[in-house]
Amino acid sequence: MNLTAALESARSSLMASGIQSSVVSRNIAGASAAGYSRKIAVLDNLPGTGVYVAAIQRAASSGLYNNVLIATSSSAQQTAIYDGLQKIAAATVDDPELDQSPTAQLNALKKALQQYANAPDNATLAQAAVTSAKDMATGLNEATQTVQSVRATADADMKTSVQNINRLLSQFQTVNTAIVKGTISGDDITDYLDQRDSIVSQMSQELGVTMSLRPNGDAALYTDSGAVLFDKSARAVSFVPTNSYTAGTTGNAVYVDGVPVTGANSVMPLKSGKLAGLAQLRDQDTVTYQSQLDEVARGLINTFRESDQSGAALPDVPGLFTYPGAPAIPASATVSVGLAGLISVAASVDPAQGGNPDLLRDGAISGNVAYRYNTAGNGGFSARLQQLIGGMDASQPFDATTQGKPNGSLIDFASSSTSWIENQRKTADSNVTYQKTLLDRSTAALSNVSGVNMDDEMSLMLQVERTYSASSKIISTVDQMLQSLLAAVGN
What we know:
By secondary structure, this protein is mainly alpha-helical. Helices cover 57% and strands 9% of the residues. It starts with a helix and ends with a helix.
């Protein structure tokens, strides 16, 4: 190797070492930044002698990255479901000391009736039984309010989620355009690639998403159900929120590029992500539980109904428990939507409304004497109270679509409802734990491949410094040799 070649080789090495040093410094600075991937200076040989930095690449693994996206979406979905069910369970079944579950309140009502039946002439026990009935009705009313509040909150969260998706799609379009332009011009686009991956990672929290790579660094986005989110341009994600919810309210669907991806009429339903979890909570789990509450209310009205005692074959009418549809009795084994929010204790037996609690013992709560059971006006009359107690234990049919016990006593059905909501919550809790563990492991695996290891970077920095020192030494030596040569020629 002649002196010129040696000098050129050392010079190219110095330039490459400078770029390598810059890349290492960049990695160290970005080590703690979320979404940053390790950058690598790729060296290649120059024609003849020397090296140069052919490209700046980033450490990445598309397979591990996709695993993180999937785990993120699944975790967000299960968390949304669990949070909603937790609110419902905490307000309606959780606290045994408050006896707030429908089952506990039914048992309390049954106990109050039994005590009243043992002393039917005791006015205090009569009032206690009516108070227990009022607690039962109020509990169902409040449970309905809780369920509908959770649905309304889920709907509002869906609106926020859609807004986030549209914002992220706009950012994605900007960064994707920069990547395509940079790829064509040969610029360093690794930071843009990090930004794009970060945007997609954030989007995966809102809905299941996949990214398809194309020539020149271009990318397309799809939901996990196949709907197009981005293809050369961002697609519109739309949703019309519903501000107020009642038991009969049906929430609106989320649309991606005009295609419904949530709701009963969805042709490409989302499989994961926060949106999918919120839609399931709003449209399925809460609706089912509301139906169970409505069936408990219907069962109460049916159990405490009064029948004609005059022999005139008059139709049955609501007794202790009533609702706006009285004097009709709700259809058997059929959910009366929203009934749990409307049920109440008849004013005629409620002392707080000027009523007479003894009507619970005597009958004719509706005001029609044809439905009077204690025709003799006997203060020790307990047959009607015993009949009501037996009715609470008697088997009756319930709507099978509610996923509660289709046949059994009212207390049995209420117990099956409590078990159902608890099972749904525990299942969601287990799913959250599993998905979060899977996400942590997937994220750790990706970090091992693409993350910055400070020890490795410092070791590489030492190697670069040694290379720089050696190249400098070569230049210094060549300089001395040239000076000696020139001096010899001059003499």
